[in-house]
Amino acid sequence: MAIDSHMHIHKKVLENQEKYIEAINNNAMIERVINVGLDIKSSEESIHISKANQKFFSAIGIHPLYVASQNLETLYELSNNPKVVAIGEIGLDTNKRNFEEQKKYFINQIVIANELHLPVIIHSNNANKLVIDIFEKDIKPKYGCVFHCFQPNIDDLEYCIENNFYISFAGKITYKTAKKSIEVANKVPNHLFLVETDSPYISPEPFRNQRNETANIKYIIQKLSEIKQINEKEIERMTSENAKKLFKKMDEKF
Predict the structure, then answer these.
(1) What CA–CA distance (Å, rounded) separates 150 from 245?
(2) CA–CA distance, 3 with 31 (Å, rounded to integer)
(3) Is 197:223 a contact under the CB 8 Å cutoff?
(4) CA–CA separation, 49 and 40 (whole Å)
(5) What is the pLDDT of residues 109-134, one digit of tens each?
(6) What angle do CA 112, 101, 38 make, to 5 degrees?
(7) Closest C-alpha among 144, 93, 151, 96 to residue 120
(8) Which of 13, 15, 92, 78 lies closest to 50 in space, CA to CA?
(9) Where do the domains of the chain lie, and which CATH numbers do they carry?
(10) Is the CB of residue 148 less than 8 Å from the CB of residue 171?
């Protein structure tokens, strides 16, 4: 069974939530999902959904595109829910010019994650080296880290491997233009990679440019099976075990 380590079901990005929740609950291939917040409101929604649905777990955090007028202190209160397994997604996005504000929120959320003994989920849009620079000069996650939808760069990958940071693969790995991502997938150790859909974004082939859903995780697994020359069931098993090692609270009994 597979774990979708990063997806979004909340009103900010998706209507008809009940339909998508039901589809996940009824999909025998899906063991668990991590529903990732983008701001305080969507983090609260994620927790509400996880309370009502056994397969669902939550990540709470403030995405770099939504840093304006967010109360970081609220994360401490939200973290009290036992199904909150990570702080995320947090990070940097070079599409926005408010870099100093992004950096402040990013650093402060790593501080919170370290205080709460939680791993972090990193959003890094054309910013891997900037993120790494913060890790080296300001603060580094103490309880694990995953670069979600990792943007391929071998030098950055080597740093992640040296620090036992996880790399997560999404729908882009299935694209014909994904030569660099395939190179990265070949180099990532089997104990440091995860799978995700980032739904409703980044649909894999053959559903590219359509709304994504967790069921499409199978196409990402199929592609990684092809790249790594490992059968699909073993990819499912390895990535699920890796997710439970990183998101330790997810392996508790609920």
Answers:
(1) 19
(2) 6
(3) no
(4) 14
(5) 999 999 999 999 999 999 999 999 99
(6) 60
(7) 144
(8) 78
(9) 2-251 (3.20.20.140)
(10) no
